[in-house]
Amino acid sequence: MNQALDDFLTKAGDSPVLVSACLLGLATRYDGDSKADADMVAHAASVRLIPVCPEQLGGLSTPRPKSSLSGGDGSKVLTASAKVKSESGKDVTENFLRGARVVAALAKITGARFAILKDKSPSCGVTKTNIDFQTADGPGVAAAVLKSLKIEIFVLP
Ligand code: SF4
Predict the structure, then answer these.
(1) Best mutation site among 17, 18, 28 for ligand 1 pocket (most ligand atoms within 8 Å of CB)
(2) Which mutation among 69, 123, 146 tests ligand 1's pocket best, with the greatest number of atoms within 8 A of CB?
(3) Number of domain units in the chain
(4) DSSP secondary structure letters along 82-120
(5) Which of 81, 34, 77, 39 shows the shortest CA–CA distance to 58?
(6) 12-48 pLDDT tens trace
(7) What confidence tier does 110 reach under pLDDT thresholds 50, 70, 90?
(8) Which atom of ligand 1 is nearest the CA belonging to 28?
(9) Which H or E run contains 10?
(10) Which domain holds residue 88?
C-alpha cells in the first residue's frame, strides 16, 4: 500500500487524473514493455484516470529506439535550448514536444488538475529524467509542460 498515493488520490476526489499509461500496465514503453505499479493498478477502477503516453501521442512507434535529452532537461527543451535524440542519433524533439502538447490539451479538455507520472523518463520524469542516456535531475518534456500549467503531480518510480 502506498499511503502517499492514496492521500493524493483522495485529494483529487472525483477530478480526472492524468497518469503515465505504462504505470497502469499498458505496454507503451520504448522496449514494448510496461511498468505496472500494483498500487496504481488497484485504483484503476475507482478513480477517473486518463492514461497518456506522451511519446506515443507524439507519433513515435512502440517499440521504438530509446531516446534521451541532450543539452538540458525538459524545461530547456521547451525553450529550444535542449533537444531529444534517439540512440541512433535521430532528432525526435518535435515528437516529444507534440506529445507533451497533446497531454496538455487533454488536461484542458478534461479539466484535469492532477497527474501521476513515471519518474526517470525523458518525457514523464518529474524529479529525475534522462540526459545523455543517464539518469539526471530535472523534469522530462511532458512533465515540464504540466508543471508550467500548475498541474499537481505525484511521482512514481
Ligand atoms: S513516455 Fe511516459 S507513459 Fe510513455 S512509456 Fe515513457 S514513462 Fe511511460
Answers:
(1) 28
(2) 123
(3) 1
(4) SEEEETT--B-HHHHHHHHHHHHHHHHHHT--EEEEETT
(5) 77
(6) 999 999 999 999 999 999 999 999 999 999 999 999 9
(7) very high
(8) 5
(9) helix 3-12
(10) 3-156
Atom of ligand 1 nearest to the CA of 56: 4
Atom of ligand 1 nearest to the CA of 123: 1
| Helix axis angle, 93-110 to 141-148, nearest 10° | 40
How far apart CA 17 and CA 8 sit, in angstroms, is: 10
CB atoms within 10 A of CB 5: 17
The amino acid sitting at 91 is: D
By alpha-carbon position, which residue is closest to atom 5 of ligand 1?
Answer: 29
- From the list 50, 61, 23, 25, the residue with the least C-alpha distance to 113 is 50
Looking at the predicted structure, is the pLDDT value of residue 1 above 90? no
How confident is the model at residue 40, as a pLDDT?
A: 96
The C-alpha cell 492514496 sits at 6
